[in-house]
Design goal:
single chain, mainly beta, Methylamine Dehydrogenase, Chain H, Immunoglobulin-like, 2 domains, five-stranded antiparallel beta sheet, 7 helices, 6% helix
Length: 700
């Protein structure tokens, strides 16, 4: 890295360091700031009171060590660290959840940290970030210290948090010949290798409550929640250790807390649906189901799942009926590890990004070895931008092409662009591997911009930008080829695409990165995997702020400071909406028409829609249109600005059985006047009602 980049210390980063360090030391200046450089192991200033600054076109504006309950300045400095490892980070509104890989003395019994990040997610300018602090509100306990929380996902309304566990902490301890840390209250699970899926009530973030549990042989690795036809479903994925490799579908009951297994799906056509088979005979780790994302498809409105299925590639699935999953398309690649979908179409295309994880570099891509104790040099893992347009054509699983050859441009099938950080580097034990991602679809100065936020282990957080046909604004790479390798604006990374990256094609390149980190004592680090810092598990954007979880040191808040066109702070659009919904009752007769009254008050223009369950039809009312989707009918009411009373007449389905169904939710979007595939919708909390539909021959 050049001296120019090493010495780049933004005012925002300097303020963040002062905020975290000054509270502990009682000083107003920080000295001895050092820059990290590639290589295995710890880097930066040996004095853990200081931060090592290493960033390009990004600024670190906040840091919390997760040392204890309280704000950054009270319990979040590097002098008060969490002892153990940290995993996935997710944000819903003003609340963040951070998974805990392990807890050691003196910070035992921790499973998830719950944080208030509203000072960042509600900031309307960068100036407000100077005073912003994250605050740890509570910790969800870990019921067994052999287990690690691998993933955290919120329900759509944010009222619940779902955790996936695997006995990773115990496995690492056993490998090292150590016993796992004991809980202060003893083990609460009868099985010492207990691992599974937990549901947590977050209605009071300062006092979370575990309300549901289900157990698996080796637990689940990742998960995703989606509300389908009025019910909560959790799509959980894992490899073949203890359980088959595939998707386990759980239905969550908010009343009882039950997590009921309702389906299993695998890429293997002989065991694709229903009961899971014997993993030792039917499956292989080659097909580890590693990550999954579920969204309402922008083109069809139907719930689609995107699955990273390791050497079986990336798959697109119709999950509108969670008990009968249908594969729609497949992109062929190796080590499909992390996946994220773009929630609006781009240039008429349905897009997703899928990335690899490389435990060691691919030896066939590098030059001769440099160190005998490390594998041959190679690449750190690719990220592919894939076109999934046409998978809804009803003609079986669509072939989305195959990853392009090493070093070649993206021209094969559905692959539009790709990026990798390095292609000639030595490392082992995942040190420089790519890891988890998120996609960002935002506007900067009225121009649409697409980004990918990457947690890239010891390479820190990397911010990629996607160029697409017809895009306005500054180019992803300079007209003269740029200042970095392969023409990328940033000096880091190797981007490529199937066009020039200017205005006639697709391109993905790096626009900023941060390896800035606060140093903590070695005893606090999760050294079982790596003691290297930084070691970023993931990166998530909210309101123009990028949050990253570092396995060994805590949570960071950063901004993109690309001088050409930075992502502005204050991009979150969360209108204040108040609603009330009244129906003719909670029991409906099949074939009869009933009245639904909706009152809504909003402080900003929004479009409104209401969901009817499968089989219901619209008989009249104030609606402007309907949209039949995979899990029901969306009734569209058009724009509301201020107060409005809306009326809907709906007819319940006829039949011979008594059934329970859900009316709602009511959803809103601030993308007023845009085409359906250019709108992102948010469900309004507490706008669903459970009803009973009687057969036509039954009476009330």
């Amino acid at each position: 890295m050049s001296e120019e980049h090493d010495s780049r210390l933004s005012d925002a980063t300097r303020r963040a360091i002062l905020k975290g360090v000054g509270a502990t030391l009682g000083v107003s200046a920080v000295g001895g700031v050092a820059s990290g450089h590639p290589g295995s192991g710890d880097h930066g200033n040996e004095d853990h009171d200081h931060a090592a600054v290493d960033e390009f076109q990004m600024s670190t504006v906040g840091y919390h060590s997760l040392g204890g309950i309280g704000s950054e300045s009270v319990s979040g400095s590097s002098d008060e660290p969490h002892y153990g490892g940290i995993s996935e980070l997710r944000i819903h509104g003003d609340i963040a959840a951070v998974g805990i890989l392990s807890s050691k003395e003196p910070t035992v019994d921790r499973g998830v940290a719950i944080l208030d990040v509203s000072a960042y997610t509600r900031a309307e300018s960068r100036a407000e970030l100077e005073r912003a602090e994250m605050t740890v509100l509570s910790f969800v306990p870990n019921e067994n210290n052999t287990t690690s929380v691998m993933d955290v996902k919120f329900s759509g309304d944010g009222d619940y948090l779902f955790l996936t566990q695997q006995p990773v902490a115990g496995l690492f301890a056993a490998t090292a010949g150590n016993a796992p840390e004991a809980r202060t209250e003893g083990e609460s699970a009868s099985n010492p290798s207990y691992a599974g899926v937990l549901a947590v009530d977050l209605s009071e973030p300062g006092d979370p409550e575990i309300v549901g549990r289900t157990q698996f042989g080796f637990g689940m690795h990742n998960c995703y929640h989606h509300r389908i036809a009025g019910e909560d479903y959790l799509f959980c994925v894992s490899g073949d250790t203890g359980d088959p490799a595939g998707i386990f579908v759980l239905r969550f009951d908010r009343t009882s807390g039950d997590l009921e297994k309702v389906n299993f799906w695998s890429h293997d056509t002989d065991a694709r649906q229903g009961e899971a088979g014997d993993p030792t005979t039917e499956f292989s780790r080659r097909y580890y189901a590693h990550d999954i994302t579920v969204i309402d498809d922008p083109a069809t409105g139907t719930p689609f799942a995107y699955l990273a299925n390791w050497n079986s590639g990336a798959r697109v699935l119709d999950v509108s009926d969670p008990t009968d999953i249908e594969e729609l398309g497949r992109f062929k690649m190796e080590r499909a590890h992390t996946i994220g979908a773009v929630r609006r179409t781009v240039d008429g295309k349905r897009l997703f990004v899928v990335g690899q994880e490389n435990p060691d570099p691919d030896s066939d891509t590098g030059s001769s070895g440099q160190r005998d104790d490390l594998p041959e040099p190679g690449h750190t893992g690719h990220f592919y931008l894939v076109d999934a347009t046409g998978v809804e054509n009803g003609q079986g699983s669509t072939d989305l092409g195959e990853e392009s050859a090493e070093g070649g441009d993206s021209t094969d099938g559905g692959e539009l662009a790709k990026w990798r950080w390095k292609d000639d580097i030595q490392y082992d034990n995942y040190t420089y591997s790519a890891h988890n991602i998120d996609t960002v679809d935002t506007e900067v100065n009225g121009q649409r911009r697409l980004f990918v936020t990457v947690g890239h282990y010891h390479a820190g957080t990397r911010l990629l930008e996607i160029d697409f046909p017809g895009r306005s604004g500054p180019p992803v790479r300079d007209e003269d080829g740029g200042s970095g390798e392969n023409g990328a604006i940033s000096e880091g990374g190797l981007g490529s695409g199937n066009g020039t990256g200017m205005d006639d094609g697709w391109y993905m390149a790096e626009t900023g990165w941060s390896r800035t980190h606060n140093n903590v004592v070695d005893e606090a680090k999760f050294g079982s995997l790596s003691a290297a810092t930084p070691y970023h598990w993931c990166a998530i954007e909210e309101n123009g702020v990028v949050f990253a979880s570092c396995i060994s040191t805590g949570v960071y808040a950063m901004t993109l400071d690309d001088p050409r066109s930075p992502i502005p702070v204050g991009t979150r659009t969360a209108p204040d909406v108040r609603t009330s919904i009244e129906t003719d009752g909670s029991v409906f007769r099949g074939g009869a028409t009933d009245q639904i009254d909706i009152s809504i008050s909003t402080q900003a223009p929004v479009e409104v829609r209401f969901q009817l369950p499968p089989g219901w039809s619209v008989a009249g009312g104030d609606h402007t249109g309907t949209w039949d989707v995979g899990d029901g009918t969306l009734v569209e009411f058009g724009e509301v600005d201020g107060d409005a009373d809306l009326r809907l007449f709906a007819t319940a389905p006829s039949g011979d059985s008594v059934r329970s169904q859900t009316l709602g939710p009511l959803s809103v979007t601030t993308d007023v006047g845009a085409a359906r595939d250019q709108q992102v919708w948010k469900a309004v909390p507490d706008t669903e009602q459970s009803v009973v539909v009687l057969s036509g021959g039954l009476s009330f």
